[in-house]
Amino acid sequence: MFVSHLSLTDFRNYSRAEVPLETGPNLFVGSNGQGKTNLVESLGFLSTLGSHRVSSDQAMIRQGQQAAIVRARLQHGERQLLVEVQINRGAANKAQVNRSAIKPRELPRYFSSVLFAPEDLALVRGEPSGRRRFLDELLVQLSPRMAGVIADYDRVLRQRNTLLKSARASGVKGSQLSTLEVWDERLVDLGSQLIEARTGLVARLLPEVAAAYETIAGEDHHATLSNALSILSSGGEDDDETPSDARSGAISAADTAVAFRNSLERLRRSELDRAVTLVGPHRDDLVLELNRLPARGYASHGESWSFALALKLASAQLLRRESSTGDPVLILDDVFAELDEKRRGRLASAVHDVEQVLITAAVHDDVPEQLRAHTVHISGGTIVDGSTHGESDG
Known about the structure:
Elements: E1 2-11, E2 14-20, E3 24-29, H1 36-48, E4 67-76, E5 79-88, E6 94-97, E7 100-102, E8 113-116, H2 122-125, H3 128-142, H4 146-170, H5 174-217, E9 224-228, E10 247-248, H6 253-266, H7 268-274, E11 285-290, E12 293-294, H8 295-298, H9 301-322, E13 329-333, H10 341-350, E14 356-361, E15 374-379, E16 382-383
Binding site for ATP: 30-37
GO cellular component, one term: cytoplasm
Family: Belongs to the RecF family.
């Protein structure tokens, strides 16, 4: 699948932009702050319903406007689709496919992309929440039904935490404990599904990550990843750190449910004291290692950058193989400035056969020549040349 045309209305600094795109590499060049990243951010939002830069949708609506529209014409073999989303400031977002309304959460069924940006260094160096989000976004792209499981789990978790706070405030009455047991079963059911899905995903990602890391770095540093499951921990940590004794390569669905229930029973008193759910997929982590040492804390800047990029290239490869939407659009936002010349060349070789690659760069010569076939220059928030034409307010 590839995007043949991107249209923006009141998105970020663009009042309007019409951007024809081609298969293969598409390079957007311009100084910092001109709107390059805004273009690719819009496509990332179409496939994940989120931004790699901000947590709030409101920031993507142009100042002074009430809504932003992202519209993309997609080509998948002989099939064409017009996919669009309207991001609203004071109401729920809306989405359409071929002018027919759909729920926004259904958009990943029609379009997938993998975006790598400097912020993704946090996948290696940041907190577990970022790595959980990385896995869950990829899960939804591979299996859209998981969006419902994740949303339901988050809802049950919030309601259970509210009940724990109420029980603590009132001195823990018997009726509240019986109600808590009802929520426990729902939490275990949904949480076990999510843990099982993440575990299977990590197993499929592992060989792809190892291969992608070696391709980028030019040598084998034994890049590995594994699950750290809070339900297997003997403690009850009240932070977002990886439980030291919770490592698991794989766990069956039946064993997951049993371990989850046992952990909730064991930590009942601690949860009532702290008024928070202490175990479950919301407290798990994805452990990244190089040369059998945790990448977080031990990997150099270059190694961390290569590992984060390998995670995204591995994701693209998995989507390529398993997704019904075909090849994902690969987006490389300001990547080449951080790589030395050898890594730039190796990355260019690694993506040469991807159906469509979108690249942003502040310096034209930072990008290898084989990725410059279709170059669009952006200045002052306006698309000024190349095969693309459009207008925006900067």
